[in-house]
């Protein structure tokens, strides 16, 4: 079972939820797809057993072969190529590594070279396998790192928890692509609800089963996120309180289920509900 | 001298467009013949890299000068490689800017922004 945890707005509690779920689950795998600023490893502090570089293919031109026909310039939908003063310019950061320019070049003047854009680290924290994607500073997109992360060979019996990037763009879509279930984490702010609405629409378009976790809940205050869920018939699987104790555990880089009995029970409960939902989806849809 | 300016409409009534890469039209003004021509900016609808493609259009039209309120780093790289001078527009009036450049009152655009690419979807 693969569970993607996403939120739209950052700082809502994706890492809190995915780290604790992975921790409470036996033989689990936690994958940090927030490659711009991965932070799950700060809690797990895994012993790194394997590091590998992630590269993408970037075109490079042989000026002796290029005859300036500009077919590559016209072809590129991302405008990563320009032809100025009889010379081809390649904008590496704009390039999406589709390889199309190589195909359309009649002179075979273009070839591909590898460009390093980040790293993947694999390790263990007690019973949890921790896989982290790290994008190099200055890179434009981490999509190919996420692709690599999710193509890792993971034992089928492992429960996989995918900590998604914030937002609802390409990198989030890539992160949830193969997920069996999406956990949407919400916080009780207007801004949070706005971005929650965006990922809610995203998982609907992608036809993914989903449920909500409401974080930072007060008992005695209005909760616009809860209201949104009720209005849209989104199943609320868990409400996590706005709690000093939890904040303290978190800010010390500790994992709540390993420190606190109550939170251990709460996430055990949430995991049970998630499993139930996934089982339900499997019987309904297949 | 050929001057190009990103504009909102294809008429002399138009104002200068706030964006370079995604401006709907470009004005091409020839100081020798005092003639104005408007061309469509085919880069405006690009998924990405609009600045690069727009700059390519400026280069292909053999402009000597671009007057624009702003310009991204990739577009600037293309324009610099083609030795096209980038001047900063003083306001949104085409005529006032053309007058100003003729009398040497416009200054070179110094702030080149990093572009807005890679921000689709938003973060935080």
Order of helices and strands of chain A: EHEHEHEEHEEHEHEHEHEHHH
- What can be said about the biggest beta sheet of chain A? 9 strands, mixed
Number of helices of chain A: 11
CATH level-4 homologous superfamily of the largest domain in chain A: P-loop containing nucleotide triphosphate hydrolases
In the CATH hierarchy, the architecture of the largest domain in chain A is 3-Layer(aba) Sandwich
Annotated CATH architecture of chain B? 2-Layer Sandwich
What is CATH's topology name of the largest domain in chain A? Rossmann fold
Average pLDDT rating of chain B: 91
Please characterize this protein's 3D structure.
- The complex is a heterodimer of chains A (286) and B (124).
- Chain A is 36% helix and 29% strand.
- With 286 residues, chain A is α/β, with parallel strands linked by helices.
- Chain A folds into two domains: 2-54 and 119-285, Rossmann fold, CATH 3.40.50.300; 63-108, Alpha-Beta Plaits, CATH 3.30.70.20.
- Chain A has a nine-stranded mixed β-sheet with strand order 3-6-7-2-8-1-9-10-11, sandwiched between helices. A two-stranded antiparallel ribbon of chain A has the order 4-5.
- In chain A, a hairpin with a 2-residue loop joins strand 6 (110-125) and strand 7.
- The longest helix of chain A is centred in the last third of the chain and has 25 residues, at 261-285.
- The two termini of chain A are 15 Å apart.
- Chain B has a single domain (2-102), classed as 2-Layer Sandwich (Nucleotidyltransferase, domain 5).
- Chain B starts with a strand and ends in a 22-residue tail after the last helix.
- In chain B, strand 4 (65-68), helix 2 (73-81) and strand 5 (85-88) form a beta-alpha-beta unit.
- Helix content of chain B is 23%, strand content 21%.
- Chain B has helices at residues 50-60, 73-81, 94-102, and strands at 2-7, 25-30, 35-40, 65-68, 85-88.
- Chain B has a five-stranded mixed β-sheet, sandwiched between helices.
- Chain B has 124 residues and is an alpha/beta fold.
- Chain A binds chain B through residues 9-11, 36, 73, 76-85, 87, 89, 91, 93-94, 140-141, 165-172, 195, and chain B through 43, 46-50, 52-53, 55-56, 59, 74, 77-78, 81-82, 117-118, 120-124.
